[in-house]
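Closing statement on the NAP sub-project.
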Amino acid sequence: MAGFGTVGSAVYRNLNREADLILERTGILPEITAIAVRNPRKSRPGGHFPSALVVRQPRDLVKRDDVDIIVEVMGGCTTARDLIFAALRAHKPVVTANKALLAEHGRAIFGESNRLNVPIYFEASVAGGIPIIQSLRQGLVANRFHLIYGIVNGTCNYILTKMSEENLPFEEVLREAQALGYAEADPSFDIDGVDAAHKAAILASLAHGGCVDFHQVHMEGIRNVSSIDVQFGHLLGYEIKLLAIIRWQSENKVEVRVHPTLIPRTNRLAATRGVTNAIVVRGHVVGDIKLSGPGAGGDATSSAILSNIVEAATHLHSSSDDRSPAYLCAKGPEVVPISNVVSRYYLRLSVADRPGVMAQISSILGKAHIGISSVIQPEGHEGKVVPLIFMIHDARFDAMNQALKHIQNLQCVKAKPVMLRVESFES
Ligand code: NAP
Ligand code: HSE
């Protein structure tokens, strides 16, 4: 195993604790025989560190005769990539939780896995403990996926939940999520939507039969979501969630986007709290199903890794061909540019409270053929700057963006507008 951090230490702990259960159920008794870490002398409070198993370099793991399977839980794209290629070339199956690596280099990695007929397992790369990869690959194999949407970043959902329920400031809640082991090594991956976009790219590739280019995935994080938007959202009957949305448009075209989204409080994801992830999959045979569970943290993630270790061990002992899905190294569908995507919007402006302001703004929206579905302006701010909230009907993003540029230039608009998408996923 390469890595003994939040995930690696939990894999070690839970594998040892549940070895008998796994043996009883599967006839397999996996054992961790060697571990690579960056700094063997680092103090590791709160758990047993098997220092006798430590090797100097991750690549040393591959050469050992007592290593049949490589578990990569160190993260990053350089050493991890080298290790995985070395493992595949040594005909050792790989288990990884590394969504960044798979989203950015998946085509090459799955290509090598297929060429050499050595499988790579990656259940833990999306939604922690939820078996979404297995569900898409096996449980839902007879379905086409018109829509997949979900909360796939535990850190952001933890932060948004605390903002919604306790009105706590962003930075304080982020520190809590880091201390709980939910956040990535670089937490900006979480809060800027990068981690969710990695996961969206993996899900879109699995669902639509070819590697989706991660760099075409539109991503916005939650840095600009403020408590005032959460509160106005409530007033209008919505919760704000960071969602990954994968919507099939037409032959070979798919929307793959990550952004904060207002969803009706009646939507099945609206009550998803804390680190919990939840994904709705709309299959043309099964209809809508929702998978939900802990999406980050050592224990949840190790549950998915342990299941993959057993799969990899089963593969080693069988003559069946269990290679990674061949389509993951083929070119995937085209990602629809965000400028062409249609959705509803929540728009919050800070405006001078004086006559004519509303008329100026609605005239710009009207000229762009953008319809307003409702407006809120709290009373009691006469002569001052006041929040003005518009709910906007379906509009293309480029039209909305263009209108916003004009609105922003109005003298009565006193701060950068906040624009969030609104989705109800009814069709
Ligand atoms: P972490 O706590 O930062 O642990 C990383 C581990 O990898 C540490 O033990 C570190 O060694 C070791 N490491 C890093 N670079 C290394 C190198 N070049 N050579 C040898 N060892 C190296 O990270 P984590 O949270 O466990 O995450 C690990 C992976 O799982 C990442 O890909 C992450 O995206 C993924 N993941 C995490 C979660 C989660 O909830 N945390 C959930 C799903 C997936 P030292 O201990 O010596 O520093
Ligand atoms: N940092 C990730 C999250 C870990 O918060 O969801 C799980 O992939």
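Residues 132-295 form a domain with the Dihydrodipicolinate Reductase; domain 2 fold (CATH 3.30.360.10). With this model delivered, the sub-project is considered complete and its resources will be redirected to Aim 3.
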